[in-house]
Amino acid sequence: MRELDYHGQKIIAIIPAAGTGVRMETNRPKQFLDLDGRPVLVRTLEVFQECPAIDSIILITPEQDVSYARKEIVARYALTKVEKVVPGGERRQDSVRLGLEAWDGRDGLALIHDGVRPLVPADLIVRVIDAAKEYRAVIPALSAKETVKEVDENALVLKTYDRQMIWLAQTPQVFRYQDILMAHQRAVQENWEEVTDDALLMEKLGIPVKVIEGSEDNIKVTTPRDMELARFLLKERTACAARAKACQETGE
C-alpha cells in the first residue's frame, strides 16, 4: 500500500503536452526537446512514474505525435504507469478535458501537471495530494516577489496590488475527479474563455481552492532561456544527489 491512501480511491495524473512550442523557436515541440540526454517530457513523466502515490497516467500530445509518444517516449523509457496516450485539442483546456474523459475510472483524485515542468520535486506531488485529503481543490504557488500592476490598453497603470496577497500558480494541481471533469465539460457547454489554469474552473464553480507553497525549481520550459535554466537546475540536482550518496558511503 502506498504511503498516502485517499480512502482507497485511485489517483490519476493527467499530463497535457500537446503544445506546439512557438516561443521555443524550434521546429519540434518543446516537450520532445533534449534535456541532458532525455526528452523534457520523459523527465516530467519519470517523476510521476516513480511516485508511489500515483496509480496511473494519461498523457496528452499533439495528434500527429501520438504514435511517436507511444513508441519513443512511453515504450522506450518503460513508463509503465502511462495508461493511455490521447490526442490533444486546440487549447490546453481542451486537451485536459480530453485526458479526463479518456480515463476509465469514475472516482478518486485527478492530478493535472504541465508536461513541460520537468523539475517538479517529488515531495511537492506528495504535499498537494496530502492537502487534497482536506480540500477539494489544491494548487502549489509562489508568493510574488515583484510589485504587480494592472495597466490599460495604453500600458498606463490602473491599479497596484498588494504583493503579499499575490501568488503565482504552478502545477501539479489536484482536484476530485468528478469536480474537475464536470467543470471542464461545463466550460464547453457555457463557452468559458480565458481559462488560464484548471483551478480557475473551480473558482467559477464556487469551490474553494487551497494554495500551498510551491517550488522555485518547478519552472515551466517555454523559451530557450527556460531550457538553459532547466539544464543548470538539473545539473545542480544531480550533483547534490551524488554528493549525498558519497557522504552516505563514506559515513561522513
Molecular structure report:
This protein is an alpha/beta fold. It has a single domain, classed as Spore Coat Polysaccharide Biosynthesis Protein SpsA, Chain A (Alpha-Beta Complex). 35% of the residues lie in helices and 21% in strands. The protein has seven helices and twelve strands. The chain has helices at 40-49, 66-75, 92-102, 122-131, 177-189, 198-205, 224-250, and strands at residues 11-16, 34-35, 38-39, 56-61, 82-87, 109-112, 137-143, 148-151, 157-161, 167-169, 173-176, 210-213. Strands 1, 4, 5, 6, 7, 10, 11 and 12 form an eight-stranded mixed sheet that branches. Strand 4, helix 2 (66-75) and strand 5 (82-87) form a beta-alpha-beta unit.
Task: Summarize the entry for a quick read.
This protein has helices at residues 40-49, 66-75, 92-102, 122-131, 177-189, 198-205, 224-250, and strands spanning 11-16, 34-35, 38-39, 56-61, 82-87, 109-112, 137-143, 148-151, 157-161, 167-169, 173-176, 210-213. It has 252 residues and is an alpha/beta fold. It has one domain (11-250): Spore Coat Polysaccharide Biosynthesis Protein SpsA, Chain A, CATH 3.90.550.10.
